[in-house]
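Appendix B, Record 12. Input sequence as logged:
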Amino acid sequence: MALIDLHSHILPGIDDGSPDLDHSLAMAEAFVADGVAVVAATPHILPGVYANSGPDIRDRLGDLQGELDRRGIPLALVTGADVHIAPNLVGGLASGHLLSLADSRYVLIEPPHHVAPMRLEDTFFELLLAGYVPILTHPERLSWIKNQYPMLGRLAKAGVWMQITSGSLRGAFGQGPKALAEQMLDDGLVHILASDAHDVSRRRPDL
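Logged structural output:
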């Protein structure tokens, strides 16, 4: 059975993932060797840090897919983005500046890692009301989430999906994220397991 990875930073030179084409090709080969057939290319969209946009991501994905096809690497890429919390997410998605996964209703949302954002639940509810299914990326790795763990249950009950990183279960991010990932699995709160791959060494494809 072929795997699908819905969170990766495989596009070259666009964020803190692959720095160039050679690294992207090596990541693609690692995905294929790992049994993955489809990868969502999900670069960060973070105002002031990673000024990426939907049209630019589409262009870069088309370039990389063309290179994979020319080299006979059997990996299909689909569009997406690691969308950081910002004002008017619904408007950004509707305009195409922000991207959902493969132009579906499902969209990756990444909160700040070290500071709990204000009105986080309201942000997710606004997306749900607009017809999207927000996916909270790697909550087990958020340093503030342990003190607000009940919120994950409320969000999941409302229709928000939860994605944990495969490396968290291996202890790659420390014992805290590993324990939280296992607790979320025990509590039935996990919908997606993804690699969040950035390279072929430290953060490699590992589904």
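The two ends are 13 Å apart (CA to CA).
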